[in-house]
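User: Last request for today: this protein with 2-acetamido-2-deoxy-beta-D-glucopyranose, please.
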Amino acid sequence: MKVIEDSAPCLLHLFLLAELIVHSASRPASSPAPCRTFRSIFHQVDLLMGLSRKLHDLSDEDVLMFESMENRLDTLPHLPHSAEYFRSFKVNESLSQLSLHTQSFRQHIDWLKLARENVSLPSRAAEDSSTHLLKLSNLLNASLHQMNEEVPQLPPLSLPIASTSFDVLQFSVEISDRLKIFCHWSKRVLRYLQRLNRCPKH
Ligand SMILES: *[C@@H]1O[C@H](CO)[C@@H](O)[C@H](O)[C@H]1NC(C)=O
Ligand SMILES: *[C@@H]1O[C@H](CO)[C@@H](O)[C@H](O)[C@H]1NC(C)=O
Ligand SMILES: *[C@@H]1O[C@H](CO)[C@@H](O)[C@H](O)[C@H]1NC(C)=O
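Assistant: Here's the final one, the structure of the complex with 2-acetamido-2-deoxy-beta-D-glucopyranose:
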């Protein structure tokens, strides 16, 4: 009798341990694949961040001059920065938003590439950015698929005609600045998603 009494707490421990093992065994099923995708997404955002600086080839002084001018592209995504946004954060919605914003930047950058070519300005950085935005789009698409979410489709935007070099330079600076902000925002969202998914730190 004594033996059974003594073993009761021990059995409880065993039971708890077994449950712990079952839980931790079932958890990774929802973890590694999204985590791998998030890491690839992070990498693409890093590359884009580097490219965003090169979208114009102006001196710091000239950039300041353009930055002091009014923004003209109100089609560029507006990013919610508030603490409220991150408090009421929904994973599926943030990924959909990231996807839509990525598509929007890609349309703006493809347009910028043509605009720069039209006025004989170098367009290589725009072309490379477009390539990485497409990769980013595909990765976000994969991520949404992993969560059984629909991939949102951004309708074609109507963008202005940039007829002078001055216009094109102004648009280049505006898109460059906004792309940089988007990259920072995306990283913040991604770090949040990685924490929610208990992804290992890299
Ligand atoms: C995200 O998920 C929530 C609940 O799981 C759902 O109510 C909402 O409609 C989803 N949003 C999108 C954009 O799919
Ligand atoms: C580039 O030039 C073509 C031909 O003049 C014009 O149709 C097009 O709108 C221009 N693109 C941009 C982005 O300004
Ligand atoms: C998303 O990926 C699926 C295949 O995984 C593809 O059929 C679909 O066209 C993609 N959608 C977008 C918007 O890239």
